[in-house]
Amino acid sequence: MSKQSRPIYSLVVPIYNEEAVLPLLLHRLDRLLEALDGPAEVIFVDDGSRDCSPIVLAARARDNPSYRYIRLSRNFGHQVAITAGMDRASGDAVIVMDADLQDPPELVLEMVAKWREGYEIVYAQRLSREGEGRFKKATADLFYRLLDRLASVEIPRNVGDFRLIDRKVLAAFSTMREKDRFVRGMFAWMGFKQTAVTFHRQPRAAGETKYPLRKMLRLAANGIVSFSDAPLRLALWVGMAVSALAMLYAACVVVMWFTQAHLVPGWSSTVVITALLSGINMMMTGIMGLYVGRIHNEVKGRPLYLVDQRVGFEDGAEAMAA
Ligand code: UDP
Ligand code: MG
Prior knowledge:
Largest sheet: 8 strands, mixed
Number of strands: 8
Strand order of the largest sheet: 7-5-6-4-1-2-3-8
Helix content: 40-55%
Bound molecules: uridine-5'-diphosphate, magnesium ion
Structural class: alpha/beta
Shape: elongated
Strand content: 15-25%
Oligomer: single chain
C-alpha cells in the first residue's frame, strides 16, 4: 500500500512505558481512523520507554501507512514529547491525546465537528475525574485555583493537554521554543478562536500513571513560573512591608530612648530583627534564583529534544537527528 496523500488529521500520542495499554489503544485508534471523515496519521512519540512499547509501535508504523513512530533518545517528559510529535504533524488539524485512553478517542469526532465550525483550538474539559486518588484530585484542584489567581493569561480549569488545534495554531506554536514548557498555558496565551468540549474522565485503561508526584510538582511549578510573575512581586511587597515595620520599630525605639530613663536595649529584639531580615533576604534571593535559573536554561540554547529514530515518514529516513 502506498503512502496516502497528506493527512487532514494528525493524532499525536506520547508514550512512556505504555505496553499494557497498547493493544487496546491501537484497536481504539483503528476505529477512530475509520470514523474520521478524512485521511489521518497517528504519530507515536516514544519518550524513552524501557518496556516493549517501542517494538510494538515501530512494527505498527512499518505495517500500517497511517501510523508513524518517533523515538526520543531518552525520557524528556510528557510536555516535550507532545511538542516533538506536533513538530512532525502534517495534518490540517492536530490532536494531542494521552495513550492510556483517559482521553477517549471518540471525543475527537466532537472536536472535529467544532473545528469544522471554524474554531482553531478545541480543548477537552473534564467534568469529572474517575479512578484518580483523592490526593491527586485535591492537589490538581488546588493547582488550578492557584494558577487561576496568579496567571497573567486565563488558563481554562480542568483542561489537560487533550486538544485539537488548527494548522495555523500549530505554526504559531512551533515558534515558541521555551524549554520549561507548560503546553496548556502556551495555548491559552496564544489566543485564536478557542472552545471546549466536555467529557467525564475515565480511569486509566491499563498500566500505572507515569506522572509521579515529583513530575506533577515540576509541571505545576513550570505552570506558575512561566505564566506569572506574582512570586517576584510577592517578594517585593513582603520586602517593603518588612522594611516599613523595621522603620516603625526604629521610631518606637527612638521615642523610648527619649522617654525612658533606663532603656536597656535588649539584644533579643536585635537578634529577632536580624534573623527576620536575613530570612526575608534569603527568600527574595531564592525567588530571584528561580528566574535566573530559567534564564540560564534558555540561554543554553540546546535543542528541546533529540530524535533517535523515525519510522513511517514520507522521507523514509529511519534514523536521523532533528
Ligand atoms: N508520558 C510521557 N512521558 C512522561 C510521562 C508520561 O510521554 O515522562 C505520557 C504517558 O505515556 C501518557 C501521557 O503522557 O500517554 C499522560 O501520562 P499519564 O496518563 O501517566 O498521566 P496522568 O493521566 O496519570 O496524569
Ligand atoms: Mg493518564
